[in-house]
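re: ur question from earlier - yeah i can do the single chain one, its not a big deal. heres the input i used so u can compare w yours
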Amino acid sequence: MANNNSGKIGVATATITGMNAMIGSGIFTAPAILASNIGPAGILAYIFVVASVWFMAQSIARVASLFPDEGSFYTYAKQWGGHAIGMISASSYIIGLTIAVGVLTTIAGHHLVPFFPKTNPSTLGLIALLILIVLNIFGAVLSQIGQKILICCTVFPLLAIIGMCFSKADFSLLTPFAPHGFGSVLKATRLVVFSFFGFESASALFNLVKNPKKNVPRALTYSITFVGILYILFVSAIIVSVPLELFSNAHTPLAETLKIIFPGLPWFITIIHVSILSAILGTMHSLIWGSSNLLFSLTKKMKNKTIQSAIKSDLLTPKVAVLVIGAFVLLGFLTITNLDLFFFLTATFMVFAYITAMITPLTIKKEWKSGRNIISVLGIATATLILVFALQGVWEQLTKLTY
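and the output i got, formated as tokens:
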């Protein structure tokens, strides 16, 4: 009898993949966001988002187990809304991913400046983006070993910074705890959630994981728990050791601020900076690969005869999908310079797609009878709150641009 698990990945690799997808530049830009928007109370925003993401992840994992077909968000939303809603959901998710890569491109450019001080950050970001697009065109993807190497590069700076900062803890920095009011904590969720995007990647691996009905939810729980604990410790360590006024510019790499606090460790902070940069570039690579694969999958679902003919004649291929995604990322990178707008737009499109997927189990009677829909309801409720604040943020930023 053939082994159905042959060539499939275990729960450990699925967990690491989920962690790699989540840990990118979002968490490393968090201190600047906290300084300008929340204050020490920002830690509460992280706790809320960790809980919200867990509800969303468990709900989406359940949908993936019920409908483990190619197409992910198209397949999920189609169950209750038909082809049109499926297309809208998948398109929203892909747009969110491409905007996220634009955010990372901007931040990558600023993190490359210390190595190329005479070059404009935008130019460096553009070069990094083009290299990653070329790598994806030629099919360069991270192997299981590559995933494990990347997780070491991403977790190392977090652990190192946690240890360093707690060694200089000054709890007087916790006051005032909420200088902008506690309402700012809920609004901050639209920014904080960016650090967790990618949590759903383990659900997308449903057909590649051994015993997926059991292991996918486990991988999601493990990855979100590990990352959530790391994030909360990281943010707490920064809050109690670094005066938030040092984060005057959201573009400033965290390593530059750490050099002020730890002037005697420039070499070690450089190592941390390189690790952070590798996390950013690794996340960019994964998002380009994931979004291009989703785009190609989505085109196969389209009912347009011209598109279907182009696919059959190999005019539309996965490589072409990479170029299309790259073009959209480039367009966003060149036209949107407001970092907050980048964050809010990403949250709007991604969270909308999550909600459309989580509606599906609400339409299935047996899910209500089993009690599983309690998690879906909580996921939709918390995601909707984040979506409302994200939309408010988009409106605020667009209003500023018009004046």
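The longest helix spans residues 73-112. not sure if urs matches, ping me
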